[in-house]
Each structure stands twice: as structure tokens, then as C-alpha cells.
Amino acid sequence: MAVHEVPVYTGLVKDIKLDTTKDAVVIENVSKVFKKSRPFWEWFRADKKRDERTIWAVDHVSLNVKRGEIVGILGANGSGKSTLIRMLSTLLIPDEGHISIFGYDVIKDERMVQRLINRVSVEASFFKRLSPMENLLYAARLYNMSGAEARANIKAILARLGIKPDRIHAPLENMSRGMQQKVAIARAFLTSPVVLLLDEPTTGLDPRSKLDVQKFVYELREQHDATILITTHDMDEADALCDRVAIIDQGKIMALGTTAELKQHVARLMNREKPVSMNEVFMHYTASHLITEEDIARYGSWEKAFEALEAQREEEDEE
Ligand SMILES: Nc1ncnc2c1ncn2[C@@H]1O[C@H](COP(=O)(O)OP(=O)(O)OP(=O)(O)O)[C@@H](O)[C@H]1O
């Protein structure tokens, strides 16, 4: 099998030979279960089976991502997006199934996977009293980047993300949350991601900053062949940026495809001539009952099936 070196632009992964014939990310039948203990007022109940509530945060998920692809993970709050991303980045261990990055297993080859992936999340840790430049120089040093190379890269990336030169040397603690988030994104870009995991990177950013980040993500893929998984609540963002999206609900993938495919499919179910919006696609796949073609035939239209099934659900909940 041919082994090619992936072109990357900083020191971190220069020495790693990747088998680029393999998919960048392979997720096979992966589950993660959390146990939540019941509230203390229920401790004395005789029914011991209810001692713990089991939450299938990720429930038998399979997904392959090709090298250079941008895949969006869309889901409501608590649907399992972050848990999935955390397993990909070796922060959590799957209870079932396998995950590999370019053939490297997240458990057996943890170190190698950590060199290949980079995760950006809102809870990024920084030295708040130091400036963006100082924080990023610190990160660059950890990755053995030379000072001169790092400074030039940091300036270029921060400028590209719309951070003004006068903010680069001011303490991070004086910056808004959105600005700090951009610095977290800059850090991930700086350290040469082969696979970049972006956990809600644009949540809380103003529209211009959102666009700055989206454009940069796109460029990163175009120019550096990065593979990108991005979780988002923003359907327009998913539509604009992602080659494919996976819609996840209660830990399960409910739909996977290009946004155009999913829009057409849902439009057909809803009996619309024009493709529906991504918001409507999302509502369809995350409704409390997934509406099937049989439901539509039975109730006459998607809307009627939706109303009837929601009413049925409310009745069940009241019982
Ligand atoms: N460490 C944990 N211990 C117990 N339960 C957890 C833990 N982490 C996540 N969960 C639960 O697992 C489920 C999925 O959570 P997760 O954070 O992955 O969702 P999410 O889709 O990323 O949500 P959000 O959009 O709000 O960030 C939720 O029910 C959550 O309460």
C-alpha cells in the first residue's frame, strides 16, 4: 500500500508518515455511557434497579471521514456532540467500538493520535494575564517551533482572524469571550492540525467574527489539506462550510449526507417542490418521533403527522 507524506506546514508532524489511502477518521460502532446517580430523596426507595440512571451519551455511532473533508456534527444541547469529539481527541475512552485517526487507534496509539489531532473548545485554557502573542508563543514552544517562525505565523493567523495588532500584546483577561475564542482557534491552527476538531467554534461570536473563522477553516482545508470535524448549532454555518453533515439526537446519528441531499430528501417527505431549509431538516430529524413515509401516508402530510405524533407524545408523557 502506498504511503505518502501529508504536506503540513509546521514542525509538529513533519516526521510522521501517514497512510493517506486510509480514511482520516474512522468511527466504528462507538458508544459512551454515563451513569448519573439518582437524587438523594430517592435513595431509600426499595427499587434498587433505579439506583442509577444510564445515559447513552453516544449510542453505537459509526462514521468515516475522508482526508480533506469538512464534516459537521449537528445536534441539540445534550445530544452527544462534545462526548463524541472528546473521544476522538483521547480525552474520553469509548465504552464500546473503535476509533482510529489515519489508522492509529485512539486507545492503543494515544500519543500518535494526540500529535495528529487538535481540538478547539470554548473551555480552552490560557494564561489569562499573558497576551495572545505570549500564550501562542508558549504553545509554539511546546511544539518545537522556532521563535521567528512562530512569531510570523502567529501574527499572520491572528490578523487573518480579525484580531487587531494592538490587541496582540494586551493581556488576554481584558479581551471579550469571543476574542479569547479566536485566540483558541489560532492556537489550533498554529500547531499544524492534520485533523482539526472544532467544538462549537463560532458560538458566541458576532457575525463578522463568525465569517472570519469560517473563511479561515475553509482556507485551512484548501491550502493545507486538513480534515475538519465541526460541531455547531448554526445551520447556516453547516450549510456554508460542510461537505457532509451528521445529525445526532440522543447519541444516535439520525441522518448523514450533504446538506443538499438532506434538504431534498426532507422536501420530498414534506411534499414541497423546493428544497427546505437546513433548520427544517434539523427539526425533521430531531423531532420527538422521526416521521416516516408511512406516518405521512397515514396522516396525509408531514405537518399533520408531526402534529398528531407530538400530541400523542404529550399524552404519553402525562400518563
Ligand atoms: N462527564 C459526564 N458525566 C455524566 N454525564 C455526562 C457527562 N458528559 C456529558 N454527559 C451527558 O451526556 C449527554 C451528552 O452530552 P454532550 O455534552 O456530549 O452533549 P452536546 O451535544 O455536546 O451538548 P451541548 O450542545 O449542550 O454542548 C448529556 O445528557 C450530558 O448530560
Automatic annotation (TrEMBL):
The keyword Flavoprotein is annotated on this UniProt entry: no
InterPro entries: AAA+_ATPase (IPR003593), ABC_transporter-like_ATP-bd (IPR003439), ABC_transporter_ATP-binding (IPR050763), P-loop_NTPase (IPR027417)
SMART domains reported in the protein's UniProt record: AAA
Pfam families: ABC_tran
Record keywords, A-Z: ATP-binding, Nucleotide-binding, Transport
Transmembrane portions of the chain: none
Domain ABC transporter: 25-275
GO molecular function, one term: ATP binding
The family this protein is said to belong to: Belongs to the ABC transporter superfamily.
Protein name in the entry: ABC transporter domain-containing protein
Organism: Thermosporothrix sp. COM3
